[in-house]
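pasting for the record
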Amino acid sequence: MSGKTVTRADLCEAVYQKVGLSRTESAELVESVLDEISACIVRGESVKLSSFGSFLVRSKGERVGRNPKTGEEVPIAPRRVMVFKPSNVLKQRINGSLVPNGHDTSEDE
């Protein structure tokens, strides 16, 4: 694995290179998409991106945790957490079942 982290700037540059918008327009587009996804998640809605995955909000109830240093039990307050569930298409691409252009290699045989 390369260990590289993709940043907003990287996404903006990719949109600039592939779509042909100006750098400013590319940055505004990426920001708009990320803002809309964030707003939906904050409202508790699920965001599903076909062939990529879903962002879901789950509620975790109150529970008892333990301080690993002292062993003392402490209550952990209820909270909402965001989780990402990758689509089967993304899982297959990650595991090498699909070639990078998105076509299944078994279709060509």
